[in-house]
Every structure is written in structure tokens, then in C-alpha cells.
UniProtKB/TrEMBL annotation:
This is Ketol-acid reductoisomerase (NADP(+)). Gene3D superfamilies: 6.10.240.10, NAD(P)-binding Rossmann-like Domain. Mg(2+) 1 binds at D192, E196. Its cofactor is Mg(2+). Mg(2+) 2 binds at D192, E228, E232.
Length: 333
């Protein structure tokens, strides 16, 4: 089945302009959605806890900030952009008591609905508008007149108009400028978790560390190992982003290209791919999410250990020093 794609002409901005929207959370995605919807003429309020550090920032940027409970009481479209493990509690405390017939709950990621951590009543529209990019890029692209592609999906269509509402919302944050793809909650969450674990975050991080360790354990200077295994990665990824693997191989030397063809498959082996399939099945079965929620509820003990180990890794120590000497590299987290 061909994918269904939607652009600006397929979406009617007046649909979301006729609703009252609550954006819960003002982090990476929350600030981008709230500001861009506001700029698109939508009635937005931001829901944050009274002691939230993000409050001052949102107010400075001209947004009205109320508590999550108040935001949900006022709104008939609620976009949930607090961290995934926190969403259950926010749903119980602020969202559920304020749901009325025909209201809509929106998500930026399908995790809580697909794995049934949140179970909204049947008289509510449940949809997703998930930009395929970090929130700060979502906002910057919108402000520059462009957009980041989005996925939309409808999990529950109580009004029969949930998809039009989701498309209208996606237009309000610039998504239909770049293209909106229709998907399901299941496909979004399973592919998103797989991509970040296996390729984008987990896979790349271990590849970088193992390469750096191999060079430094062989006696090469950490500074050289840093440039070779981390810094240059951006230059390579830029080429891949612009023109695929073909452009990358065209731009690097023939020696690099030949060496890559020969050695790459010795690093990512059939065993690696078998492990990828295992990870995918743990995601699909819900095992990964069960373990992550248990870790979160247990106080993040192992998470903090892993965080410390990464943050104190020798490549991070030398990288911090070197980036400090490169004024053009923005090291702000
Ligand atoms: P974040 O960690 O950057 O920001 C979370 C915000 O929620 C903060 O403003 C925080 O103060 C607020 N918050 C935390 N607890 C709260 C509570 N109890 N009540 C009210 N507010 C609370 O989060 P994020 O990375 O923007 O992720 C939000 C959602 O968007 C998640 O579902 C995530 O999977 C999804 N998403 C994120 C990205 C991304 O670019 N980071 C991309 C696609 C989808
Ligand atoms: Mg984050
Ligand atoms: Mg993700
Ligand atoms: Mg080289
Ligand atoms: Mg070449």
C-alpha cells in the first residue's frame, strides 16, 4: 500500500483555529508547538506546574501559562508533550477529570497509547502529530518559513473528524510545508524506538566509543582518535543526508570507499543483524516499555549509572576540551 502524504493544500488551518488548544510541557517539542500554533493564529495556553522552570521562558515569549489542570479545563484539544514516563500521572491528575464529549487528546509519540499506559474514554478523539525532528529544529524551520515532516495517526475517532483536526494542527506547526505522512500508533512507536536504539542513539554511540577505545588502547593520541571517530562523523552524515550513501562514497577517496566496502560488513555482521531483530521483537512485544517504566518508577538507578559512565567516558573528557577550542561548534546542550 502506497503511503498517504499531505501538504499545505490538503489541510484547513481554520479547523484548529476554531479550537482551544492546551500544550502540556514546554521542553523540546512543547515550546515549538506552542509558539508556532500561536503564530498560526491558534488560541493556545501552556500547561506547566506552578514551580516549573520553563514558566518564565514561556511567559517571556508571550504565551499564557496556567497549570496543566487549568489548561485542560479550558481546552478542547490537549497536546501531551511532557516526558513519556510522566504522561500517565499527568493524564490521571489533569487530563481525565477535564475531558468532555468530543474533546481531543493529541500526542507527539505513540508510546503511552499504543502500550496502554493511558486508556482514554470512547467519546474522545485520540490522535498523534509527531514531527520527525528535534523540537528546536521544528521551531526554527517554522520561523524560517519551512517545516519538519510529521507523522499523523488516529487511534480513536469519536467525532469522525479526528484526521482533519490532526492535519490542521500539523499545518499550524509547519508540518504540511514539508509533508505529512499518515501512519498508525503501532508503526510510529515501534519504528521510532527501533531507530533510536539500534541506529541513531545506541548504535552510533557504541560505534563511536569502540572506535575511540581501539585507537587509544593502541597508543594513538586521544585528540586524534576524537577527530577520527566523532568529529568527522558530522561531515560524513551531512553528505549522507544530502545525497545518500552514493554521495558519501562519491565524495570520500576511493581508498576510503574500498576500505569501507570491505571492512564495514566485518563490524556490522549477521550476528549484529540477528540482535537487531531480537531488539525489534522486544519492542513489539512491549517488553522494552515494561522494563523502561519499571526502571523509571524504581527511581532510575541503572539509568543514572549508565548516564555517569557515558558522561565520564574518556572521549567526552577530550571532546569537551577540543570543542572549547572550536568557537564555531555550539556545545550548549
Ligand atoms: P522534554 O523533556 O524536552 O520536555 C518536557 C516538558 O514537560 C518540560 O517543559 C517539563 O518541565 C515538563 N514537565 C515535566 N513533568 C511535568 C508535569 N508533571 N506536568 C507538567 N509539565 C511537566 O520533552 P520532549 O523531548 O519535548 O518530549 C515530549 C514528547 O514529544 C514525548 O512524547 C516525546 O517522545 C515526543 N517527541 C520528542 C521529540 C524531541 O525532539 N525531543 C521528537 C519527537 C517526539
Ligand atoms: Mg528530551
Ligand atoms: Mg523517540
Ligand atoms: Mg580520514
Ligand atoms: Mg570517491
Amino acid at each position: 500500500m502506497a503511503v498517504e502524504m499531505f501538504y499545505d493544500d490538503d489541510a484547513d488551518l481554520s479547523v484548529i483555529q476554531g479550537r482551544k488548544v492546551a500544550v502540556l510541557g514546554y521542553g523540546s517539542q512543547g515550546h515549538a508547538h506552542a509558539l508556532s500554533l500561536r503564530d498560526s493564529g491558534v488560541d493556545v495556553r501552556v500547561g506547566l506546574k506552578a514551580d516549573s522552570k520553563s514558566r518564565a521562558k514561556a511567559e517571556e515569549q508571550g504565551l499564557r501559562v496556567v497549570t496543566p489542570f487549568e489548561a485542560c479545563a479550558e481546552a478542547d484539544v490537549i497536546m501531551v508533550l511532557v516526558p513519556d514516563p510522566v504522561q500517565r500521572a499527568v493524564y490521571e491528575e489533569a487530563i481525565a477529570p477535564n475531558l468532555k464529549d468530543g474533546d481531543a487528546i493529541f500526542f507527539g509519540h505513540a508510546l503511552n497509547i499504543h502500550f496502554e499506559l493511558i486508556k482514554p474514554p470512547a467519546n474522545i478523539d485520540v490522535a498523534m502529530v509527531a514531527p520527525k525532528g528535534p523540537g528546536h529544529l521544528v521551531r526554527r524551520q517554522f520561523a524560517d518559513g519551512f517545516g519538519v515532516p510529521c507523522l499523523i495517526a488516529v487511534a480513536q475517532d469519536a467525532t469522525g473528524k479526528a484526521q482533519d483536526l490532526a492535519l490542521s494542527y500539523a499545518k499550524g506547526i509547519g508540518g504540511t510545508r514539508a509533508g505529512v505522512i499518515k501512519t498508525t500508533f503501532k508503526d510510529e512507536v515501534e519504528t521510532d524506538l527501533f531507530g533510536e536504539q539500534v541506529v541513531l542513539c545506541g548504535g552510533v554511540e557504541e560505534l563511536i566509543k569502540a572506535g575511540f577505545e581501539t585507537l587509544t588502547e593502541a597508543g594513538y593520541e586521544p585528540e586524534i582518535a576524537y577527530f577520527e571517530c566523532l568529529h568527522e562523523l558530522k561531515l560524513i552524515v551531512d553528505l549522507i543526508y544530502e545525497g545518500g550513501l552514493t554521495k558519501m562514497n562519491w565524495s570520500v577517496s576511493e581508498t576510503a570507499e574500498w576500505g569501507g566496502y570491505k571492512s564495514g560488513p566485518r563490524i556490522i555482521t549477521p550476528e549484529t543483524k540477528a540482535e537487531m531483530k531480537k531488539i525489534l521483537s522486544e519492542i513489539q512485544s512491549g517488553q522494552f516499555v515494561r522494563e523502561w517504566i519499571a526502571e523509571y518508577d524504581g527511581g532510575l538507578v541503572e539509568y543514572k549509572k549508565l548516564y555517569d559512565a557515558t558522561t565520564n567516558h574518556p572521549i567526552e573528557v577530550v571532546g569537551k576540551k577540543l570543542r572549547g577550542l572550536m568557537s564555531w561548534v555550539d556545545s550548549e546542550a
